[in-house]
């Protein structure tokens, strides 16, 4: 590696100040950033380790929502009694991320800030219409994700927590890419008072909602209704892992399975 300075603040105020420095990068679980540094794809002058800020790792109930701190590890979300009781689909999603080592180190805040186009957490945030809380504001899920590795975060702005509202029913189904365990296609389905939300990850440039599936399932929340929706492959990715047509078929199949799972 190359030379850089390392800071480990103990308060959010100190972390916010350090993150605003030119050339600084916040370090959450390090599952992406450290690998990128080893490959010299990124070269921050300063790392600001958020692991020493206890308030960022909490998970708590807040009315009909669950608020997950940005530094909560995947394993913590998967095992949280509050998450399991209020939004079991979110706990199930977290339990299926990567392998045991990734789940022990990776964080929800790091995942969302990175916004990998095949990551699982963006599907939960978008599917549940969650709110991303930062050091500067609150950002609605529909406004947060802005394309390939792009988000609404400004320079120096840190995610502090994510507020997930409870849904009537919800489920996540993922078809894993065998080597990376990222989603070749992942679908998060949530039935709410305002209708159904369907969020798809792994399809191309980033997580997205599928309006056709949402409309059909808002009228009839059944696997058969999901199966009746034609999935357009035009905007989906083709790569060494799967063709756009294959991904389109997976979206349909994973949605049907997610609805069946949500129905119990």
Structure description:
This protein has 264 residues and is of the alpha+beta class. The protein has two domains: 5-165, Uridine Diphospho-n-acetylenolpyruvylglucosamine Reductase, domain 3 (2-Layer Sandwich); 169-263, Enolase-like, domain 1 (2-Layer Sandwich). It is 35% helix and 23% strand. It has a five-stranded antiparallel sheet. A four-stranded antiparallel sheet has the order 9-10-11-12, with helices on both faces. Strands 1-3-2 form a three-stranded parallel sheet, covered by helices on one side. Strand 11 and strand 12 form a beta hairpin. The chain is globular and about 55 Å long.
Question: What's this entry about, in short?
Answer:
The protein is of the alpha+beta class and 264 residues long.
User: Main sheet: which strands, in order across?
Assistant: 4-5-8-6-7
CATH domain class name of the largest domain? Alpha Beta
Helix/strand/pairing category: alpha+beta
Can you summarize the main beta sheet? 5 strands, antiparallel
- Return the string of H and E elements: EHEHEEEHHHHHHEEHEEEEEHHH
The value of Rg in angstroms is 18 Å
Q: How many helices? A: 12
Could you name the CATH topology of the largest domain?
Uridine Diphospho-n-acetylenolpyruvylglucosamine Reductase, domain 3
Straight-line N-to-C gap: 50 Å
> What would the principal axes of the Cα set say about the shape?
globular
Number of strands: 12
Question: Averaging pLDDT over every residue, what do you get?
Answer: 96
What is the share of helical residues? 25-40%
Q: Low-confidence parts, pLDDT < 50 over ≥5 residues?
A: none
Number of domains: 2
Beta-strand percentage? 15-25%
Keywords: FAD, Flavoprotein, Oxidoreductase
Domain FAD-binding PCMH-type: 1-169
Organism: Ramlibacter tataouinensis
Pfam family, one: FAD_binding_5
């Amino acid at each position: 590696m190359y030379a850089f300075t390392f800071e480990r603040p103990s308060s959010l105020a100190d972390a916010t100040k350090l993150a605003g420095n030119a050339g600084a990068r916040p370090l959450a679980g390090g599952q992406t950033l450290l690998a990128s540094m080893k490959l010299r794809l990124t070269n921050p002058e300063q790392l600001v380790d958020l692991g020493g800020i206890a308030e960022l790792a909490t998970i708590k109930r807040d009315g009909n929502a669950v608020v997950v701190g940005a530094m909560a590890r995947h394993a913590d979300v998967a095992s949280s009694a509050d998450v399991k009781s209020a939004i079991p689909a979110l706990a199930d999603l977290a339990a299926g991320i990567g392998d045991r080592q990734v789940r022990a180190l990776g964080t929800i805040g790091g995942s969302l800030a990175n916004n990998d186009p095949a990551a699982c957490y963006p599907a939960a945030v978008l599917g549940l219409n969650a709110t991303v809380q930062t050091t500067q504001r609150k950002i609605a899920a529909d406004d947060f994700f802005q394309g390939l590795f792009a988000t609404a975060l400004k320079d120096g702005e840190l995610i502090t927590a994510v507020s997930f509202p409870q849904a009537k029913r919800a489920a996540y189904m993922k078809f894993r890419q065998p080597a990376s365990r990222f989603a070749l296609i992942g679908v998060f389905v949530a039935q709410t008072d305002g209708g159904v939300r369907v969020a798809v990850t792994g399809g191309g440039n980033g997580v997205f909602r599928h309006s056709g599936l949402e409309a059909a399932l808002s009228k009839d929340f059944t696997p058969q209704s999901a199966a009746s929706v034609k999935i357009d492959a035009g905007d989906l990715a083709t790569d060494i892992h799967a063709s756009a047509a294959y991904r389109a078929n997976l979206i349909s199949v994973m949605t049907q399975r997610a609805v069946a799972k949500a129905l119990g």
